[in-house]
Specification:
The mean pLDDT is 90. Helices cover 9% and strands 35% of the residues. The protein is globular, with a radius of gyration of 16 Å. A hairpin with a 7-residue loop joins strand 8 and strand 9. By secondary structure, the protein is mainly β. The protein has 1 helix and 11 strands, in the order E-E-H-E-E-E-E-E-E-E-E-E. The strands form 3 sheets. Strands 2, 3, 4, 5, 8 and 9 form a 6-stranded antiparallel beta sheet that branches. It starts with a strand and ends with a strand.
Length: 138
């Protein structure tokens, strides 16, 4: 899965930095959220999964992959397996979007990516292998 769309919050932070005004400190971490309704870039309309035990999962990004020249398609990927808690809701949860946030709860939307619907049946845990989540240069 490749994240290719910045949130308006992140774009505002970048523009402020370019103008020489305040730039937010780097987040203490980045968390992956799974969404049952996709958010917009302004973080409206999104619905995060809410099954019993669900929680965003922290993503640790490794060093930039394949970077030999700045601007040469730089990206970073998750350096470890990410496993969401098992869906114990009693019904299938369908994911339509993924989102990166700067906090484990609430916080700011940083990036988003839509997906073809992914069903998570009861008793199943969604898992991403190391290297399968890619944050692309925008």
């Amino acid at each position: 899965m490749s994240f290719n769309q910045n949130s308006l919050y992140l774009e505002d932070q970048i523009l402020n930095w370019m103008k020489g005004t305040a730039f937010a400190a780097a987040p203490a971490g980045i968390w992956l959220g799974i969404m049952t309704a996709a958010p917009t870039a302004s973080n409206s309309g999104g619905v995060e999964a809410a099954y019993t035990g669900y929680a965003r999962q922290q993503v640790t990004l490794g060093s930039l992959a394949g970077v030999t020249t700045l601007g040469s398609g730089d990206d970073a990927t998750n350096s470890a397996v990410i496993t969401f808690p098992t869906n114990n809701s009693g019904s299938t949860v369908t994911i339509v979007s993924y989102a990166l946030f700067d906090a484990a709860t609430a916080g700011n939307l940083l990036m988003l990516e839509s997906t073809s619907p992914v069903a998570i049946p009861t008793g199943t845990a969604l898992q991403f292998t190391a290297g399968s989540i890619q944050v692309n240069q925008i």
